[in-house]
């Protein structure tokens, strides 16, 4: 076999105009992806997240104001997880900070969170079922 630098390479001819257009599209996509990814690391995002968490917590406590302390503790944990999911699903900082769509996105985040939990439970059930089959087979073979 020939060394790699002697091997023949096959190239597909792409006209220069099309090549330039393809390059500009990929550069724009990369710039948009980087801009959207960088918003989560801004310095003021921490305060924005606290504000959104407080809005969610206030909304849920106004719906049911007279509750025990244990329920309030669980509610705080629930709203924290919900806010994390809203943060994860947001495509931009302006979308995340938009108060007019916050409760619609809250419903979407709750559905997404439930779907992730259900998928994790199904994966765990499949794993334990597989492990029980293996242990049953090993005990049957051992006797």
Distance N to C terminus: 55 Å
Taking pLDDT < 50 over at least 5 consecutive residues as the criterion, the unreliable ranges are 4-12, 25-31
Overall spatial form: flat
In percent, how much strand structure appears in the residues? under 5%
Order of helices and strands: HHHHH
Largest sheet: none
| pLDDT averaged over residues | 77
Structural class: mainly alpha
The value of Rg in angstroms is 26 Å
Please give the count of helices: 5
> Roughly how much helix do the residues carry, as a percent range?
over 70%
Count of distinct strands? 0
Structure, described:
- The chain has 143 residues and is mainly alpha-helical.
- The protein has a domain at 43-142.
- Helices cover 76% and strands 0% of the residues.
At a glance:
The chain has about 140 residues and is mostly helical. It is built from five helices and no strands.
Give structural attributes.
143 residues, mainly alpha
Secondary structure topology:
Elements: H1 16-38, H2 45-63, H3 69-89, H4 93-97, H5 102-142
Helix pairs in contact: 2-3, 3-5
